[in-house]
Amino acid sequence: MKVDCKLLLKEELQLIESALKCHQISQHPFINEVSEYVLFAGGKRVRPLLCVLSAKALNSFLPESLYEVAILFEYLHVATLLHDDVVDEAEFRRGRRSARRLWGNQATILVGDYLYAKALRIASALKNPEIMEVITRTTLLMSEGEVLQLLHLDDTEVSEEAYREIIYRKTAALISCACEVGALLAGNSDREVSSLAKFGYHLGLAFQMIDDLLDYTSLETGKDLGKDFAEGKITLPVILALNRATPKEREELIYLLKKKNTTGEDFQRAYFLIDKNEGFILTHKMAEEEIRHAKTALKELKDSPYREALYYLAEYLLNRRK
Amino acid sequence: MKVDCKLLLKEELQLIESALKCHQISQHPFINEVSEYVLFAGGKRVRPLLCVLSAKALNSFLPESLYEVAILFEYLHVATLLHDDVVDEAEFRRGRRSARRLWGNQATILVGDYLYAKALRIASALKNPEIMEVITRTTLLMSEGEVLQLLHLDDTEVSEEAYREIIYRKTAALISCACEVGALLAGNSDREVSSLAKFGYHLGLAFQMIDDLLDYTSLETGKDLGKDFAEGKITLPVILALNRATPKEREELIYLLKKKNTTGEDFQRAYFLIDKNEGFILTHKMAEEEIRHAKTALKELKDSPYREALYYLAEYLLNRRK
Predict the structure, then answer these.
(1) What span, in angstroms and rounded, lies between the C-alpha atoms of A10 and B25?
(2) pLDDT (tens digit, 9 = 90+) per residue, B272-321?
């Protein structure tokens, strides 16, 4: 069976987009205004999409309400972005002014809280303790990851291992949760549910690795170019380069990362040092490895167009350019 | 039956305190450090106490684990305090330096998120969809209330009605939720559950009204004296005074509230204007009225030492001086 994955994904994305548009966030125009600004800012909808595809890969006869549940993952994601913007003192997000710049830190924190509460409200309406358990476990991990990231943000001694622990909590946990909840909605066996959770876990790790890579290598990512660099964030490309660099290069790269008010020239030099020490190529290789594990987890599922679409999406996220 | 309510409350508070001390918040010392700083800063434990008393008023044979559940309401409360501190740019909280001043806004926001997630994690472990429904409904109302408060913070046209809507969401909803969840844990009839929810609702309104009153009249409240005044917050004493003031007094009071960098003299003058126009006495009367409604709701329950303690607590909260 040859599946047109691109078309299938396009259709699912349209359904998700229309569920997002139809769903009333709040009765208060201000909450809606801030929420919609960040919700409709060009997000890729990866998390709701994974939830829907995971559910349909197990059971293609699911009610329309699946989409209303799937969007809770976009709400959770956007809630963390709002708080991140305040924490990072971001001026821009996806090429537009950040919410905090338009409405201030106060409203940004509180609307973030609101969207988080809204997501849990949608989840609790399912009256499914197992789903609630997965989601609250995940939100706890996520907030833990945010704190850990804050603490290790500029720690040049941070290990590959510690980096994985952070991105697991920060990114992979929610992506895995979206897949797992999708599987639970389809009401399938434990084996299939845990296969999809595992798929999401590896996909999520790869997703964040590629994100960290693109922060250096993409010119169109919509974020400020070299945002992580400007903030002195120690991400995987840096960690891997530091591990291989000569003592002198190491010292220089650390100096550049710790420097305040970095210039374009500083960025170019850091880029050169990371590239020379294979930070980028090795990051991509590690992401590839995660995608391989993700795909292996899918083998446990029966063949279907939706499983094909999950394979395709994994490949797409690995090779994306923004 | 003569019940020693004071002793009963003292014993229950000790059990709550030890549950708070024994419960591991996180495996990460930093999260524990920030959390414990705010958790053990002299809070009155009103919310866990109400949860425990509500449960025991319906069923005195409840497992020890009741206390582990009750503390989730303190976690939720403290999570909102942490975000409030950032939103209000507070320097002090309960007479000590605020968490944001010690650890910065970033950590304060993120540990607030963590405690919120932790509270929901405790709730979800009960695997009781009804309890989860009540809690997520409440957290949504709370975050809505915070946004509304931000929008109407300095609106001198705000009505008594709008004020009630805000304090319902901001304070009464969680207090009512603590009572309702206590009742649900005792596994009792809908009638009793809704009586206790109603009790908490009226008690919560009174609690916030008294809080707003004490912000003007207490010298020992532990907050900066006249914090609401300094921030230009329009609370019930002000609303009621503005309603009765002459046009000239109205103008002056509004001027004082909108003024930046207010002095002790400004505060004294505002106090005088509110007092002269019965803002304080009428606020207390309105709180009394709510406490009356709260007590009426308790009549639905069978007589017990715990019901007596709830009566006593309501009276105590109305007449507290800090």
Answers:
(1) 43
(2) 999 999 999 999 999 999 999 999 999 999 999 999 999 999 999 999 98
Q: Mark residue A42 as left, alpha or beta (left: phi above 0; alpha: psi -120 to 50; beta: remaining).
A: left
**Nearest CB to A106 within list B87, B117, B136:** B87
Partner residue facing B150 (CB), from A107, A127, A136: A107
Q: If pLDDT is split at 50, 70 and 90, which confidence band does A3 have?
A: confident
Number of domains in chain B: 1
Residues of chain B with pLDDT under 50: 221-222
Closest residue in A to B113 (Cα–Cα): A143
pLDDT score for A218: 85
Rounded mean pLDDT of A256-268?
A: 91
Q: Which of B87, B114, B151 sits opposite A147 (nearest CB)?
A: B114
Please report which confidence band the pLDDT of residue A222 belongs to, taking 50, 70 and 90 as the band edges. Answer: very low
Q: Do B143 and A117 touch (CB under 8 A)?
A: yes
**Residue A179's CATH number:** 1.10.600.10
* Domain span including residue A41: 5-319
Test A116 with B113 for CB contact under 8 angstroms.
Answer: yes
**B128 contact residues in A (CB cutoff 8 A):** 129
Report chain A residues whose CB lies below 8 A from the CB of B147.
28, 30-31, 107, 110-111, 114
Q: Mean pLDDT throughout A114-130?
A: 97
Q: Which of A76, A84, A121 to mutate to test the interface with B (most CBs of B within 10 A)?
A: A121
pTM of this prediction? 0.93
